[in-house]
Amino acid sequence: MGIRANSVKNQILISFLPVIGVFLFAIAGAMLLLYQANRVKSFRDQLVAIESNFEMILIEELIFLQSEYNDFEFHKSGKNERLDDIRSGYDHLNRTIDNLTKHGWLKSFDNKESLSEYQNMIEKHQEMFNTLVANVKKRGVKDYGLIGEMRGYIHYVEEHRRNLELSEVLFLRRHEKDFLLRNQRIYIDLLNVKANQLLKDLKAKNLENSKEYKHLVSYQTAFNNLVQVIDVIGNFKQDGLRYELEETISGIKTFSDKMLKETEGKEKQLLLNIYFSFYAVLIFSLFASVILSFVLAKYRSQPLIKFSKALKNQSSELNIQRVRGSSIKGASNELRMLIRSYNMLVNRIKGQLAIIQEQNKLLTHSNEKLTKVNKELDNFVYRVSHDLRAPLSSILGITLLNKLAKNPDELRSNNDLVEISVRKMDTFIIDIINLSRNSRTELQIEKIELQSMLEEIVEHHKFMKQNHKLEVKIKLDIKENFYSDRHRLNVVFSNLIGNAFKYSDTRKARQMLKIYGSVDSESLSLHFEDNGVGIPEKYVSKIFDMFFRASYNSHGSGLGLYITRETLDKLNGSIEVESVEGMLSIFKLHVPNVINETEGTLSIVERKEQFEGC
Predict the structure, then answer these.
(1) Most exposed among 21, 34, 57, 148, judged by the fewest C-beta atoms under 10 Å?
(2) pTM (2 decimals)?
């Protein structure tokens, strides 16, 4: 049985074919836009991967720069596995970018030129890093590079000297080590002045052709060449290749973030186009369906009336009507399923974007935290190693002098210097112990007798500083029992009182330290006021920094006030300072009274004391 063109079923089907065609065309357009959006997303994912790989290379570079001073094999042979990994990483990065730029569809998104510029920036950074590595190797360490060459000359002078005093040579070495540790220009001038003086002395003795003279000249030349190389290397904060490297990294990251934002914007625009296209065709299909339904109903109304009586009892006509109704419902269901599938796809894309953005934030935060910790650890190890080695170097030098000493008075004087160096080292180690203990131990809250604690600390320092003329006056207005951590307060008070003794002005007829303050139920407010040498205004904001010393001749380890501030932070307290150079200094302490936190755990004796005191 053939299909009749004038049947209701076929006419409905033929009438809706244009609508179906338009709908399918719109879906094809939306899928094309979706395909383009997926390609843009793939491009952005590859950009994220490139940025992540570059971040890993930067971490490897940072680790190399922080560890190269102890990598003797690198300074000896120039070989380093981490450098090989860095080179391999750059090769992989360049290949990835080259493959990405070969895609022709990138031209429609204007990303090809940006990728080329990004690649040029990375290549420039790589070239700068290679230059930095070459200068680091040229600088050398221990027995290698300029440092090894320089020390070889001076060691020869030390071991084969005939016309130079050992103390003069050691004094020369001291300026060398101070420059390498502090990187301050003053030590360059001091070393050159001292070297020129020694050369002048040898020349006055007609020893220009002696090996001592030639090796000393070579040592001075190698040192000045080393200074030039160190200036080229620079550091991360001021100048030189390290600073330029940091600036280049910042520029690359900024450019990468810009590319990612542009790509993300293009992806969002494509998704919006998909939304608009889909809803436009949906509305068009609905209007077209309604219009075609009215036209078809009007067209078929007369034939249906004519044949209604003849076909009244036939179920076939009824079946046709039911099939047509189910077809309309089926089309609507398919549209709804398509909308749901599309929305699920959009939600999945947004979820992936959110995960990637969160991972990027975590990676950035981890990198910043790791960089900060590495810098703090590097500074701490550097300063601790220097401050521990300085007394040992002094003791070693004095021991050598003792071997040359010929009378008991000179030996006693040298032994006194040894004792001073040992005490200095002991003080520094105690400061480090206090710093460690403050960071890792919990608070031990107990009742504290402030008056007696302060008096004991003052007496201790008076005993340690024999014949000291500092007068100490303590005046406290205690309105409430004070509860805090005894050991931590003892560290704070001892540091401040010790500084008052240490930096008192001996030129003044009367040297004073006034300790005054009050205690209430909320807190302890305590002032330490002395008329000592004071603090220069330019250093007031820096005195609480780790290892800060106002000058090379400053006493102490540079940790005392840093430990004081860290300890007060642990107690939720604070400290301020006011000072006028040459006149006075006032340290203002504020420490919470934690009496309310301890009332529930007071012993029977303490409760009785509180009751009787009421």
Answers:
(1) 21
(2) 0.42
Tokens at 43, concatenated: 């491009």
**296-to-3, 171, 282, 322 alpha-carbon distances in Å:** 19, 110, 21, 17
What CATH number corresponds to the domain at position 496? 3.30.565.10
Query: Residue 295 belongs to what domain range?
Result: 8-137+241-373
Q: To the nearest 10°, report the CA torsion of 214, 217, 222, 227.
A: 170
**Co-location of 12 and 124 in the same domain:** yes
Amino acid at 484: S
Is residue 287 in a domain?
A: yes
Alpha-carbon distances, residue 498 vs 95, 204, 501, 509 (angstroms): 63, 49, 5, 20
Give the end of a domain, one of 354, 373, 392.
373
Residue pair 147/154 in contact by the 8 Å Cβ criterion = no
Domain identity same for 366 and 454: no
Q: Are residues 608 and 519 in the same domain?
A: yes
Based on the fold, state whether residues 361 and 264 are members of the same structural domain: yes
CA distance 222 to 200: 19
Burial of 458 (C-beta count, 10 Å sphere; 0-12/13-18/19+)? buried
What is the domain count for the chain? 2
What strands, in cross-sheet order, belong to the sheet with 584-592?
470-478, 511-519, 523-530, 584-592, 574-580
pLDDT tens-digit map of 26-73 = 677 767 766 666 777 777 787 788 888 888 888 988 888 888 878 888
